Amino acid sequence: GNSVTQMEGPVTLSEEAFLTINCTYTATGYPSLFWYVQYPGEGLQLLLKATKADDKGSNKGFEATYRKETTSFHLEKGSVQVSDSAVYFCALRSYSGAGSYQLTFGKGTKLSVIP
Amino acid sequence: NAGVTQTPKFQVLKTGQSMTLQCAQDMNHEYMSWYRQDPGMGLRLIHYSVGAGITDQGEVPNGYNVSRSTTEDFPLRLLSAAPSQTSVYFCASSHLGGDRGAYEQYFGPGTRLTVT
Hints:
- The complex is a heterodimer of chains A (115) and B (116).
- Chain A has no helices and twelve strands.
- Chain A is 0% helix and 53% strand.
- In chain A, β10 and β11 form a beta hairpin.
- Chain B has 116 residues and is mostly beta strands.
- Chain B is 3% helix and 50% strand.
- Chain B has one helix and eleven strands.
- The radius of gyration of chain B is 14 Å and the shape is globular.
């Protein structure tokens, strides 16, 4: 079956530090890959996505590259801000036939950015 | 567009009670789903639907029932609440289609349920 493994948190960084959150996956076929972000007390929002190998998704200064050879989709940001404090989820979506899709999430990584 | 709406936001139930969590979307999405979020577990899929009249089980369906009579609504029923069902529940929707499932899932704000 499909699975997503992301680095355990929590992660605490100082403002303007470099961020990497590792994500690796196991899937059949050719999944699409996503990073979602959840701010305190809210639902999940799509942060970025990539649909095929070597695609780079980017949004709000965050980037992730779909690496098929290493089955990875690591999230990076060059300079984090206090407002980036949230829980980040890596996810994959694969077609499972008969018009059905399966979205599989990692367990989430909590990021806290201190001034 | 209101997007995905969920009611109620908070709910406390006693063991054995039943209730329905409501979910509605106004984006004409074919695909709708329910997840539960527990600490250290990420999100786990309970049930999903690819269109009106079609539902299927996800990873953790036991103790929950769903139906999809319209495109817009996808209620989740707890048949006989148990403390193990204490969780935050999220409804999500998206378009179906090709491009290997690249369509974004839109999430509701969640329902925080406590079963005592």
